[in-house]
Amino acid sequence: MGKDKVISPHVLLFPLPLQGPVNCMLKLAELLAINGLHVTFLNTDYIQNCLLKHTHVQSRFEDYPEFRFETIADGLSEDHPRTGDKFIDIVIGIEKVMKPNFVEMLTNGKLSSKSSSPVSFMIADGFYSFAIDIAKGAGVPLMYFDTISPCSLWTFFCLPRLIELGEVPFKEEDYDRKVKGVAESENFLRYRDLPSFFRTSDLNERIIQLILQEVKEIPRSEGMILNTSEHIDGPIISQLSTICPNTYPIGPLHALHKSILHSAQIASPLASPSNSLWEDDKSCMTWLDAQPQKSVIYVSIGSLAVMKVDQVMELWHGIVNSGKRFLWSQRPGSLDDHDRVTIEKAVREIMEDKKDEFQSSASMMAKLATQSIADQGGSSRYNFNRLVEDIRMMSLRTPAHD
């Protein structure tokens, strides 16, 4: 394709089909589109249908003529719940159906160099360890975006060392012992703080092998995007940089997204545009607005985890027995193990015994987040601008720009 036909880099964003990764990637996609990049967002059919049903995402992105959605099959039946307890089903679908379809799209399909609009740069979820070889085969630079917390990601990178030291797998009686194989956290990290699947009795389990493969492939990419900032997670970023030197801490992404949209004078039709895969229930807002400031506990178990009924009841009793106001966000299909006494104690600690300490810490984090996204001197704003320029530069090396 002649250079005169290539107006700007064509960036493909490929999130893991879960609420958190999709939400983060959509915010990044809009920021790239604001900067004049041609963006394609690749969702599974299921995720895209959820977004179209419950959000205004289609009309929001119509403001960007160089943005489009594409979809890919996830290999699961339409009625599959796609919840945390079925995550291995999602993994099998990715390997057996999504991966070969993705290869076809990049080599011969609508995103390939044979198409009228070939991809010249790729940003994929860190979980897609297979993406790096596909991208290299297509001559397309790839960066990984791990939307999980950098602290959690660092434990992933430390997994080989933890296995070598015999700290993984571990047993229940070890939960409160300190972990020695995770640098920068030896003084406070307990076994119970590690990801739950590190408790496996079998290191050949698929999830363990997938993590080992992920941390092996990420350093082969052009860089790693992180949803944090140097102000907030400097020590952890330093550790991650020893493995993947080219890192782009651009978070907190929701704050950066809001700030850049404001700077660009782009008015959203909604005060806080939703990327939710489920219908938002705003009936709680009248009650919430009537409560004293900093008096309500927000409870959410995330978009993937599934709890048993007795676990939910223990959690509910523990919070109720604390006597504190709370707002519980519960998604369809949600029905992490504690008894009600432990939960009540934890809530009282947050809202009474250590209330000032927690509020002070939260205020400090908010201040650091604000500093990170500032127009002048903000590390995340600087790293985002660097990311955009690097995408432009690296895209020039692709077949799409030859």
TrEMBL record:
Gene3D superfamilies xref list: Glycogen Phosphorylase B (3.40.50.2000)
Q: What is the lineage of its organism?
A: Eukaryota, Viridiplantae, Streptophyta, Embryophyta, Tracheophyta
Keyword Transferase applies: yes
**What are the entry keywords?**
Isoprene biosynthesis, Transferase
Top-level lineage group = Eukaryota
In terms of PANTHER family, this protein maps to: GLUCOSYL/GLUCURONOSYL TRANSFERASES, GLYCOSYLTRANSFERASE
The pathway entry for this protein reads as: Secondary metabolite biosynthesis; terpenoid biosynthesis
Kindly state a single biological-process term from the GO annotations of this entry: isoprenoid biosynthetic process
What CDD domains does the record point to?
GT1_Gtf-like
- Does the keyword section mention Repeat? no
Instruction: Output this protein's name.
Output: Glycosyltransferase
Any one Gene Ontology MF annotation carried by this entry is: quercetin 3-O-glucosyltransferase activity
Family per similarity comment: Belongs to the UDP-glycosyltransferase family.
Q: Which InterPro entries match?
A: UDP_glucos_trans (IPR002213)
